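Dear support,

Our group has been running a series of protein-ligand predictions, and this particular one with Z5A is the one our PI (initials K.S.) wants archived with full inputs and outputs. We had some confusion internally about which version of the output was final, so please treat the block below as the authoritative record. The input we submitted was:
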Amino acid sequence: MAGRFITFEGGEGAGKSTQVRLLADRLRVLGFDVTTTREPGGSPTAEAIRGLLLSGRARPLGVLGEAYLFAAARIDHIAETIRPALDRGAFVLCDRFTDSTRVYQGGAGGLDPATVGDLERAAIGALMPTMTIILDLPVHVGLARAKARAGTEPADRFEADAIAVHEARRQGFLAIARAEPERCVVVDGTADAQTVGQAIWAAVADRFGLEKRTR
Ligand code: Z5A
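Confirmed final output from the archive:
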């Protein structure tokens, strides 16, 4: 794998999409080839599956059925978007990836860890992110942001879950960070977007040895 694969994780409204954009801008200014993408989605077939999942139409399949759909979308996303970009040496910045399945369908979702692990291996093989940025903030702050952005639009399938479920997800991401400190960096997402972006940039520059090009 020639490129570098950075994923962004965290709860609803944590600021992942905003930070993907800010980091992409910084890297492009430095002349890097950057692909930004998201899950579920990121390729035409995976975007179609996203529609099924977020609308709630797949909910009758249960957590196992939804997990299979997230995995199917991921298989296509990797083949069509992530792998080609990494092979040409790009930075790939992805809004959610396999940690979201671990947390939303496993952990807080109740799917047993062995099944989550089997599905992960089947879908991604050895393609773990080079670096994962976990944006952490209190649940009520993230939900308020998501609600303000959505206006009168109804909450999606996952936003609509109970506060206790959102809190379990937050703790799930923090547990992954503790278990895999070499891959994961937890960033406080409560500050303004530019301040959060600066903290992320410091971590990325350090991780990939970019400091000399930026200071
Ligand atoms: N899911 C799953 O269950 N299993 C899986 O394997 C995968 C996903 C891959 C995808 O939803 C859903 O799928 C997700 C998990 C589940 N659950 N939900 N809901 P999505 O893609 O539609 O949404 P999301 O991933 O949860 O992200 P989000 O709600 O769109 O938020 P975000 O990307 O983290 O934040 P944002 O869009 O950058 O910012 C939200 C708002 O806050 C926006 O108005 C910003 O301008 C504002 N913002 C951003 N940063 C700040 C700061 N720092 N201060 C103040 N305001 C800010």
